[in-house]
Amino acid sequence: MNKVFVIWLSMVFLLTAISASADDSSAPPAKRIVALAPHIVENLYAIGAGERIVGTVEYADYPAEANQIPRIGGYHGIALEKLLALSPDLVIAWQGGNQQADLDKLEQLGIKVVYSETKDLKQIPHSLRWLGRLTALKENAEQVARRFEQGLEKLQERYRSAAPVSVFYQLWPAPMMTVNGTTWIHQTLEVCGASNVFADATTAYPQISIENVLHTKPQVIVIPQEKSKKAQPKIDWHNWPEIPAAKHQQYIEVNADLLHRYTSRVLEGLGGLCDKLDASRTYYQKLTTTEN
User: Fold this and answer.
1) Do the beta carbons of residue 20 and residue 27 sit within 8 Å?
2) For 43-57, 97-111, 171-185, 244-258, which range has the lowest pLDDT when averaged over its residues?
3) Residues 6 or more apart from 62 whose CB is under 8 A from it?
4) What's the whole-model pTM score?
5) What is the pLDDT of residue 279?
6) What pLDDT does 25 receive?
7) Contact status, residue 180 vs residue 208, Cβ threshold 8 Å
8) Please, which of 4, 140, 168, 246 could form a disulfide with 237 given CB 3.0 to 4.6 Å?
9) Does the keyword Lipid biosynthesis apply (predicted)?
């Protein structure tokens, strides 16, 4: 008999055929978890449930212990037989980052699947508390959630009245992409008192040209350091001194893992981003004073 079929048949009998809702508090706490996104892994470790993760995906590399977790796939798909062999009692998926066909198969096989749907900074504490309920680690999760809420509130208060500084967020160099006002990254810029020059773009992650950047004349260019298997080309912005950011060499590099993942660590990335943007803000304020 085919080995994969045997595993599948066993799982059908062993697991309850259910697609879990986010608030399924009546179920027993998860002990063997497959986490299908790096941010889910990070948040589980943050609340003390990291040792329960038996499988995960590519790029789930924080904390260091996460690198020892078996890999069962990535954004392009899940190795179903590998996942089944791990005998998870819970799969936590990211609907925006996993293949829906794979998730549908898991549910059809009777595997309990729940979905992490964080899309807003203020939803991170909710996500942490939700994981706390799923793992019966409510107190741990509450402490982490409250620290995040307090840290975010302090940053928001600090920059609430800051003078605006216009920013181009270079999400990706080739093809060149940025973010509009509906995105997570836009929210981080808002916390720092920055103005996103492509906030009004019609798509969330528009593909743009050098000419578009020339037209918007940002004072600062933010360049995230993103992990990639292929080296990405560098854009020599010095060739376009018509752009204030290029003329005044106001480039900011940020850690994409800190800012782009929906985790409690985003506060660390956000604090660094705000500090660097504030330095650029001060630079332009001094420049204006000198010119006047």
Assistant:
1) yes
2) 97-111
3) 38, 41, 42, 45, 257, 265
4) 0.86
5) 97
6) 54
7) no
8) 246
9) no
